[in-house]
Amino acid sequence: MKFKRVLLKLSGEALQGAKGFGVDPAIASSIASQIKDVRKLGIELAIVIGGGNFFRGVPAAEQGIDRATGDYIGMMATLMNSLIVCDALEKKGVPTRVQTAIRVDALCEPYIRRRAIRHLEKERVVIFAAGTGNPYFTTDTAAALRATEISADVILKATKVDGIYDSDPFKNKKAKKFEKLSYMHVLKNRLKVMDSTAISLCMDNNLPIVVFNMNKPGNIVRVLKGEKIGTWVS
Which domains does the chain have, with CATH numbers? Predict the structure, then answer.
């Protein structure tokens, strides 16, 4: 195994499938199956999930909602997604805990770093919800922050494409795929991998990022076994 402890970053859109909004239970179940396969490898796994399938703070702000309020609503969306994935995992027999940056004691634990690490050591999957708990920060930044705090070996950034391209591969059939990139190249060229705060945090802490296609079953395991899948940022 190439890694011992990893953080998987999922977009909220990954859960909606072809529905275009909300959650497709079949997709949630498929993701849970892939995560179960990762646990069979003995790898400690944490997850951060976005909330874009329900709500996005920035577009809401453009329509007149206060930006901070919109971001807090988005944090609630990530909590919903976290509980959905937690349920899907537990139905497959995977012990899971949800920790949230905004306290919702009736539903899950507050985020406590040492407790999160203890859960991982006890072979539980830990899902970090509600971003950083602060407006103006994305779930990408939350993923970089949590991965750094728990001393993860890598961030796995799951997307709908098989890596990073110099332009949108859905719009440009001649788009060039990168196999390996430096943090500075991503920042200088404003490549849409993660936001600049997240990339900078990973760079400062020498935390590699692997961008890969989540829609192809088994890809998470392939990445963790060291196969050349997706794009590496380091």
Answer: 5-190+209-233 (3.40.1160.10)
